[in-house]
User: Fold this.
Amino acid sequence: MDQLKPMDTTDTLLYLTRRVLQALAVILIVTIVVFCLLHALPGGPARGILGPQATGEQIAAFNHEQGLDRPLPVQYVYYLNTLLHGDLGTSYTLNEAVLRLIEQRLPKTLVLTVLSALVGLLLAVPLGMWQAVRRNKPADYVITTLSFVAYSTPVYFLGLILVLLFTQTLRWFPSQAPQGDTLAQVFADPAALVLPVVTGAASMIAVFSRYMRAATLENLSEDYVRTARAGGSRQGAILFRHVFRNSLTPVIAMLGYYVPVLFGGALVVEQLFNYPGMGLLFWSAAQSSDYPVLLGCVLVISVATVVGTLVADVVQRVVDPRVKGGRA
Amino acid sequence: MMKGLKGLNILEMADLGVTFTTDTGDVPAVRDVSLHVRPGETLALVGESGSGKSTVALAALGLLPGNARASGRVTVDGTDVVAAGEAELARLRGRTASMVFQEPATALDPLTRIGRQIAEVVRNHRPVSRAEAAREAVELLRRVGIPEPERRASAFPFQLSGGQRQRVVIAMAIANSPGLLIADEPTTALDVTVQAEILDLLRELAVDSGTGVLLVTHNMGVVADFADRVAVMLRGEVVETGPVEEVLLRPTHEYTRRLLAAVPRLMLSGEGPPPSGPPEEPAVVRLRDVSVRFGRGRGAVRALEGVSLDVHPGETVGLVGESGSGKSTAARAALGLVVPDDGSVSLFGTDLNRARGRARRALLAGVGLVLQDPVASLDARMSVAECVAEPLRMHRRGMSAAERRERIAEVLELVRLPRELAGRGPRELSGGQRQRVSLARALVLRPRLLVADEPTSALDVSVQRTVLEVIAELQRELGFACLFVSHDLAVVQEFAQRVVVMRAGRIEEQGPTMTTLLRPETEYTRRLIAAVPVPDPVEQRRRRTADRTGATA
Amino acid sequence: MSAAQGGRFRSAGRWGLVAPRGGAANRRRPAPLIARFARNKLAVAGVLVVALFLFFCFVGPLLYSTDQTHTDLTQVNLPPSGTHWLGTDAVGHDELGRLMYGGKISLLVGLAAGLLATVIGTLWGAVAGYAGGWVDAVMMRVVDAGIAIPALFILLVVSAITSPGPLGLIVILGLVSWLVPSRLVRAETLTLKNRDYVLTLRATGGTHGRAIVRHILPNSVSTIVVAATFQVADAILLVAYVSYLGLGVQPPSTDWGGMLSAGLTAAYSGRWWLIVPPGLAIILVVCAFNAIGDGLRDAFDVRGR
Assistant:
C-alpha cells in the first residue's frame, strides 16, 4: 500500500544548507566584482586609501609597503581578510570608518524600502487579482495601461510630478523627507514619509500587479478550481480560499529578485527628497569620488540583496508545502 | 411538475447541443444528444478523443468553459441545468450531483490539506460546524479506503499517490450523498492495479447508496467491468445505446463494431505458438546487471537494480510494468541516454558507454527511436520531410538532395503516409499521423534496432491498431529487432515474442510471451494480469467473482 | 506512465477557455503570429507609437530644422510660441528640435544596449542551460551576483570614474543588464534539451552542436525576441537615468534623460515645457516597447517576466 510521503525536516535542513552555501558563493563573486572595481579606479586601491591628494611616489611606496605590487590573487585574499575583519576602509571626505557610516544610514534606507515594498504589495496583490477576474474588461485595460505608465516613468520624474502636485499645488505633504538621525525621529513625521514611500512603491505596484494578474489567471484555469466548482463552492470562495494562496506563492518568490530594484529606487528617492539614508550617502560619495564609501555601499547593498533573496526563497518554501519533498 | 420525473431519472438530457466559439469560428462539439441515467444505474459514455463525451459530462453539471454555449435540455433531479443560474448550479453541484475527474494529480488544491478540501464541500451544502465537517471528512476518507484517515486528513495532496488522490476526489464527490455521480475517465491516469481498486470502490459506493453513475471512458474493459448500459459517441453524436451485453457483444452500429474490433484483447487461456529456442545470433542489445540511481545521497532514487536483458535480431521484446517500474529507464539505458552506475550495456556487440565520438555515433546510427508523446516528439517548426530527413543529414552526409527526397518519399510510403504530407507541419497532422512520422524518422536509416517507448499510448484504439500494424508489417519486411515498452499487457501480448515484466526497478520475470502471460510464475504478474479488465461483460463478471473468491480464500 | 488519453493535449486551453480538447481543434494551422499579435490592441498601439517616434526623431529634423550646436543667449527660457513650438531651454536651444535630437541618442543607445544585453544573456543562458551540472551552477551564481548589485549603484560608481561617449554607454548598459535575459534563455534551454525530439536526436547519434543549432536555438527565438523587446524598454529607461546620475552624453549633445534632468530645477519655476515633453516621450516609448513585448509574448505563448 502507498506510503505517506514525508514532509521531512531533514530535507528542509538540507535545502537550507544548500541555499545558504549558494548565497555565500554569490557574495564571494560580489566581492570579486568589487575587488575588480577597486583596481579599475584611477590609481588603484592606493588612491582609494591615500585619498585624491596623494602623489605618484606616495602611491608607489604605499603599494610596495602594502604588498599591492604582488600578484592579484594574493591581493584578493588579503582584501577578503580585511573584509572579514569588518574593515571597509575610511571615507576620505567624512573621515570616518565606512562601516560606521553605513551602520548609521542603513536602518533608514531599510525603513524606506520595507515601507515601499509593503505599500506596493498591499496595493498590487488585490489589483492584480481584480484585473484577472475582470479580464479584458475596461477596468483591466485601464489598470494595465496605468501599470505600463507607472513602470515606464523614471523614478525621479515621478517624484518631481508628485512634489509639484502635492507640495506646490495642493500643499498636502512636505517635499522633504524626515531629517532626524534616529528612527524615532523618522517616524515622528509620518506625513513627510508619504511622498518618498509612494514614489518608491509606484513601479513595484506596476510590476507586481502584472505578476499577480498572470498568476491568478493561470490558477483560475487549474483543474482544482473545476473540482471546487463541482463541489458547489461559489466563485468568491474559490478565489479567496484557493486561488489567492496559490497565486501568491510565485509572487513572493519574485520578491527576492525585486530587492535590488527597491534599493536602486531608494537611491533616487533619497536624493530627491533629501532623506539621509544610504542612498544619499552613496550619492554624495559619488559626487566627491569617495571610493571607499562607494565600494563599501555596493558591497553592503549586494549582501542585503542576497540575504533578501534568500529570505524570499525560504518563505516561499515554508508557505508552499509542495516544494518540500516534491523532488529530490 | 418536474418533480414527477424524480423517481425515474436522476439525469435526463434531451437534444443537448454544445458549440465552442473559437478564434477560427464556431465549432460544434455535441449535437442532439439525448440520454438518461436512472438511480442506481451506471451509464457508460464511450467514444474516442474529440467525440464530445467529456463535453457532455461537463454540460451535465453546467461546468462548460466560458466559450461554450449549450442548447437543449439537461435535467438533474428536476433542475434544468442549461437554464439555471450560477447560484442555483452551486446548490446543485456537490449535493445533488457531483463529479470525479481524470487527473488526480491536478484535481486538488496543492496548498490546502485534503481534510479541509473535503470539509469545504460538506459545509457548502450543510450548516455544520467546522469541527463537525472535519470529523465527517475523516469518516469519508475512511469510507473511500484511505488508511489512517485521522492522520492523512491533515496531509497535503502531494504527499499522496495518484490512486489515493483519486480516492480523495471521490470522497469529495460523495460527501453529501449525491443522487448522481459523473466520472470523467476516473481511472485513465492510473495504473491497472490501482484502476481495479478505484473501480471496485466506485461500484461499492454506487450500489450502497443507489447513486446513478454517468461514466465517461474510452476503455472498453472498464465499460465491461462497470456499466449497466452504454452510449457510444462519434463526432458529437450518440450513435448507439443499449445494455452493456448488447452493445459490447452484439454491436449494431458499424462504428461500434470497428471500435470493438480495434481494442486489443488480452488472451487469458489457450496455447500460444511453441516458444522457439533462444536465437543463435548474438544480441543486438544486451544489458548486464544494470543499475541506475537518480539523485545523490539520502534522496537518491534507485531507478534500476541489476537489470539484465537481451534483444536478439528480428525479435520483439515487450518491456511491461506499472509507472515507476523502471521500464522507460531501462530503454533509455539501452540507448545510452542514461548512463548506468553499475553494469554494462552493449549495443551490436560494442560496449556503448565506452564508445566515444564518431564510433559512438556510428553505433547509434543503427537505432531508431519512437517516443510516447505525438506532440513533443516532432519539432513543430520543421516540416514532416525535414523531421524525417534529420537522421539522413546526421549519418549520410554524402547523400544528394534528390536522393534524400526519394528516400523520404519511400519511407513515408512505408509507414502509409501520403507523400503530400511531406511539406506539412506537424501541427496539421493527427496524433496517429505524427506517430507514423516519428516511425518514418526512426526507420529512414534502416536500423537494426527499433526502440519504441509507449508508441501508441496517447492514441485512440483504432489509430493505435493501424500504427501497431504498420510496425509489425515493417518488422517482417525489414527484419529489425524491437524493444517495445508498454504498460498495456494486451498490446504486448499481441506484439512481442518475449516479455520482460518489471517492478520497482527490478525484473520480476521474463520469458516467451505466451508462457509468461498465460502461466505467470510470480504473484505480481498474476495480479497485474488479473487487474486488466477485458472488454467482455460476461467474461469480466466471471473473472471478478473468481478474483474475489480467490482473494478471500 | 499510464496512457493519459488526451491529457497531453491540454496546452491549447491554457486559460481554460479556448478550444475543446483533442481531435480536430488541434489539427488546424494556428492563426498566424501577426493575427494573434493584432488582437492585442495595446501592442498594436505600441507599434504605432514606436514608428511615430522613429519618424519624429530621424525624419523630423529634415522638416523642422533647428540649430542644436550653438547656444543663443538672446532666446533663453521662452515659453511655447509660434516660432518655438515647445519654447526654448536655458541656453536658447529650440525645445522641439532638441526633443528630436535627444531622441536619436536615447533610441539608438537604448536599442543597441538592449540588443547587446540580449545577445550576451542569450549566449550565457544557453551555454549554462545546455551544459548543466557544475558549469550551470557556477554560471548562474555569477548571474545571481550580478543581479544582487543594483544597476543604478554600479552606474553611479562608473560615473564617478569615467564619462563615456555614446558607444561606451551602450557597452556599459549592455554589461549591467544581460542578467534577466540570461535567466529566461537558460530556463528555455533546460526545457528544450529534454524535449522528446532532442532526446530522439541524441539517442540516435546526433551531436550536441546539431541539437543546439537545429532545435534549441530556433525554438528559443520567440523567448529571445520577447526578452529583447522588454530589454530595449528597460534600456531606454536606463538611458534616462544615466544623465541623472551624471553619466550621460556631454553637451551640446543630449538625450531625453539629459533634457529631463537639466529641466528638473526649471520645473519648480513653472517652466513646464522643459520637462513635460521629454518626460512624456520617455514614458510613451518605454510603454510602447513594453506593450509590444507583452503582445509578442502572448502571440508566441511564451512564459517569463
Observations:
- The radius of gyration of chain A is 24 Å.
- Chain A touches chain C through 54 residues (CB under 8 Å).
- Confidence is low (pLDDT under 50) at residues 324-328 of chain A.
- The CA atoms of residues 130 and 213 of chain A lie 8 Å apart.
